[in-house]
């Protein structure tokens, strides 16, 4: 009698455990598969004390520790992590971008990968995001995320930013939006976002062109779409490239001369972005060096240091006559990226100008 009761109890227990396991498996099967590619930055940073929010060490915490620090992530996605680099993002270079882009495209080509999160230092986060926006060959969500406080700080913003980014990367509503930046509960398009403050957690802003949505309670809410081409609509392909053309930026200011322009050209720049004052104005002491560079085949893009607005073609300079390109609304640092990729396809300035009005 006792034996029979024990047997029945064990059978009931096993049945319960089986149902529990099946339910958990069904739940996991419903969750999106998101890969987190870690590159370093403050989100992986550590400080000496909990109140150290400047003067900490970036790029010290590994991707698995970042994931384990936010157990809530496991409830919203099946995540895997890869440590692609472990660097402060001021040291991000073209070679890092090519490695990252090829890894992103390889992962997104896999049917069992629904989205990607890239953890990144905030200093050049906008640049990596824009580069990927032009070379990722998938409509699946790619979300770049960082933090302004190290993981050891009081009210660190990294964990919630990472949680939001994973939610966004796994969200069907985020498909086809291009590469996004998720910071401070906001969703920004890679093309228009910039780091606008040296230390505050609301530093990423899309200012006049506007962010594209919010993340609230882990859910994305979109309010507008970007109008410029990106990802699968892009003509740029880095899959067979192991280097990118050398393109630099020369910054304008009162009393500037032509030393920087001449030095950059002498160092082999194939393209030069001029971060002009105002509407991309060319100082008289700099212009001859830019004209000379153009005559040597260097492609010149007139951008502006001011941060907002359109650099008007034939406005502050006769671009038609000088055979210069204008950056439209792209910042100098993003104009550099587009010019670099443009030079992998052409050196024809009319074609390049088309690209600046397309992406
Ligand atoms: N060294 C900076 C970087 O890696 C820290 C800034 C940050 O990540 O927020 O971009």
Protein traits:
359 residues, eight-stranded mixed sheet, 18% strand, elongated, binds D-glutamic acid
Report on the structure:
The protein is α/β, with parallel strands linked by helices. 31% of the residues lie in helices and 18% in strands. The protein has ten helices and 14 strands. It has helices at residues 2-30, 63-68, 94-108, 125-135, 158-169, 259-266, 287-295, 319-322, 332-342, 349-356, and strands at residues 33-40, 78-87, 115-119, 142-145, 180-183, 186-189, 194-195, 204-205, 213-216, 219-222, 247-251, 271-276, 299-304, 325-326. Strands 2-1-3-4-5-6-9-10 form an eight-stranded mixed sheet. A four-stranded parallel sheet has the order 11-12-13-14, sandwiched between helices. A two-stranded antiparallel ribbon has the order 7-8. Strand 11 (247-251), helix 6 and strand 12 form a beta-alpha-beta unit. The chain is elongated, with a radius of gyration of 24 Å. The termini are far apart. It binds D-glutamic acid. Residues 41-42, 58, 88-90, 121-123, 146, 148 line the site of D-glutamic acid.
Shape: elongated
Total strand count, please? Answer: 14
Structural class: alpha/beta
Question: Mean of the pLDDT scores?
Answer: 95
Percentage of residues assigned to helices: 25-40%
Task: Tell me the series of helices and strands, N- to C-terminal.
Answer: HEHEHEHEHEEEEEEEHEHEHEHH
Identify the strand order in the major beta sheet. 2-1-3-4-5-6-9-10
Largest sheet, in brief, is:
8 strands, mixed
* Terminal-residue CA separation: 78 Å
Hey, roughly how much beta strand do the residues contain?
A: 15-25%
Number of helices: 10
Uncertain stretches: none
- Rounded to an integer in angstroms, the radius of gyration calculated over CA atoms is 24 Å
Cofactors, ions, other ligands:
D-glutamic acid
